[in-house]
Amino acid sequence: MPSDTSTNPQALINAQQAAALKRNAELVAAAGGPGEGIVEVRARAEAVRAHWNAGGPDMAVNEARSIPGPFRDIPVQFYKPSDAEGLPVFVYLHGGGFKIGSPRTNDLQLRQLAEAWGGAIVSADYVHVPEHSFPDPIDEAVAVVEWLSENGRDWGVDPDRMSLGGASAGASVAMGTALTLRDKGHGDMLKAVASLYGVLDYNLESDSMKELGGGDFMLTTAYTQMVYDDYVPDPDDRNDPRAFAVKADPAGLPPVFVSAAQLDPIRDDSLALGKKLKAAGHPHELVVYPGVMHAFFGFSSMIDEARRMIDDLARFLGEHTGGR
């Protein structure tokens, strides 16, 4: 059956989304282009993100910290909207095609989320391609969750009310982390998990990819395949549910928040996960945001649908972990 983007998807683009993409392209050009080589690409991407992270709510705590990990001390950004002790905590993993991004990539959005929800946020880095590939990023994220479970009270948070999530590539790592913790017998460390337009399936033939993957909607089919293959270079690993969560049995996972962008070539992967969770009777919420594209979360200063997703996620976290 044709989807709602099978005919003239350009007509569905939200005006705020279009304006944000135009402004972002101007910022990239002003920075000298996307860059050459991974070091320069990462630096320029973060420089552009500084524009999108300007303004927004102040936090009682907004600090760069680190957590011991299997490969290094893992950089994190720690946010608390108030000085209260014992706040619930959300561990967030940024997007960036498994190659770019940092704990401050979504600084504004996380401050907005912390304010709306009332809980603390640990925005954690994870090792990137090409230096590392699957499952190393998951191993780092598991280390973050396990460390906070043991030591979170020293940071003024309640580790018994911890949740985990991420955007795009970070959503893949978050889901893989939740599955790993479950399989280790530590599934109860998490009270909720969130996937924001996540990388969830190795599927280049979905309706959304066929309809939107030609180049007008940020991601192309060829680029998406490159991202997937670089992260999971061994074809045998592409059936591992830790890499692509649609392949997972959700039993033993906490409640799952699944969001998708209507005009995202990988939209149908989120729909497939939602369908699987529904068929299993697993507690979840699936929301598709109209008129927006992949990575729209990062444009919350311009796109109202991004703010709506922040509010939806804040409500979901509040329902499952409490708030202030």
Query: Which topology does CATH recognise?
Result: Rossmann fold
Distance between the termini: 45 Å
Query: What fraction, in percent, of the residue positions are helical?
Result: 25-40%
How many individual helices?
A: 9
Q: How would you sum up the global shape?
A: globular
Name the structural class: alpha/beta
Calculate Rg over CA atoms. Answer: 18 Å
How many separate structural domains?
1
Element order, helices and strands? Answer: HHEEEHEHEHEHHEHEH
Topology, number of strands: 8
Largest sheet: 8 strands, mixed
Commentary on this structure:
The chain has an 8-stranded mixed beta sheet, with helices on both faces. It is built from 9 helices and 8 strands. Helix 3 (107-117) packs across helix 9 (304-321). The model has no long low-confidence stretch (mean pLDDT 97). The protein is α/β, with parallel strands linked by helices and 324 residues long. It has one domain (12-321): Alpha/Beta hydrolase fold, catalytic domain (Rossmann fold), CATH 3.40.50.1820. Helix 3 (107-117) links the parallel strand 3 and strand 4 (120-124).
